[in-house]
Amino acid sequence: MKTCIYLSYKGLGANLLHLVYCHEIARKYGPVTIITLCNNLEAALRDDPLIEKVIFINKYHKRFIDILKLKKFLNTFNFNQIFIYYPSLRIYLASILSNIKKVYSYPIFKKKNLHLIRAAKTFTEKSMEINNCPTETNFFIKRNKIEEINKNFDNKKFKIIIGAGSSGPTTRWTTKKFYSLINRLNNTGDYYFFILCGPDDKALSDEITNNVTKNNCFSLYNKKIEEVIPYLCSSNMYVGNDSFGSHVTSQSGIKSLVILLDSPKAYTDYSKNYQRIIPDGIKIENITHGSNLNPDYISVEKVYQEIMNNKF
To answer: Which residues of the chain have pLDDT under 50?
Structure first.
């Protein structure tokens, strides 16, 4: 049976938090094809045996009049069933018109206040007629890739991914706080720090590494997603902003400390490996897109203590 999963999200993190549901469907029907708006999901899931193919689509998904083009596009794959993880009338109608026998979709007109985890869990349970669908899974990576990373670093040292990059400036802890945190940690233990940020964040990465007193920072800004993944999976902890890296580490059984300033708690609700760090006096339920909380509300000492409390 040829099964399609449609993930109508551009962000890599938003796609990865749906990975568990892709796995649940694949375990029942065999490896699945994912159609996504995320251009680097394929690279992230390259080692996943439950994912047959990842198809990036950057057209036919914006305008209602593109339904027939989307229908023609879907026809080329001869899918037997499709699971649409988004309330989209356009995608639903295109799937129906393309003669896919079984079309499962979110309730079409319930986009407001969509909780990504609850919605996906409920939809999967209802579509597959199962109970208690898990919300996290195991991220797949070939063991030799982790071993290759470990060969180059002293495994007696504690390796921390520093998630300095993020999807936007309002979700970021300040660069100064990151290098101050690293220096604070270097005063008390032996570490390696992998600086995770995007290709456009060289200045951010350089500012951190140039202000760290020890030569134990390794920047990942110039690496491709498939090159970054092994560093994430070989680390001992993630500390930083809400970014795709924490979704990989949390689903690799790695403690992931995420600083929340402008990200809904829904993004980190699904995994027991998440530890959320929020400003004092702020309720986590009140943090959402548009909160724009001042990064100074979270001190270096607060994050340092959270690391110490979760290190062992």
So the answer is: none
In contact, 177 and 277? CB cutoff 8 Å: no
Q: What was the pLDDT predicted at 15?
A: 96
Distance CA 46, CA 141 (A): 8
Amino acid at 200: D
pLDDT per residue over 263-310, tens digit each?
A: 888 889 899 999 999 998 888 988 887 787 888 899 999 999 999 999
User: 154 CB contacts (<8 Å, ≥6 apart)?
Assistant: 190, 192
- pTM, whole model, 2 decimals? 0.93
Question: What confidence score (pLDDT) does residue 169 get?
Answer: 62
Output the pLDDT for position 23.
Answer: 98
Cα angle: 24, vertex 26, 32; to 5 degrees: 135
| Inter-CA distances, 24 with 64, 106, 120, 163, 202, Å | 31, 17, 12, 29, 38
Pairing outcome for strands 274-277 and 255-259? parallel
Written as one letter, the residue type at 85 is: Y
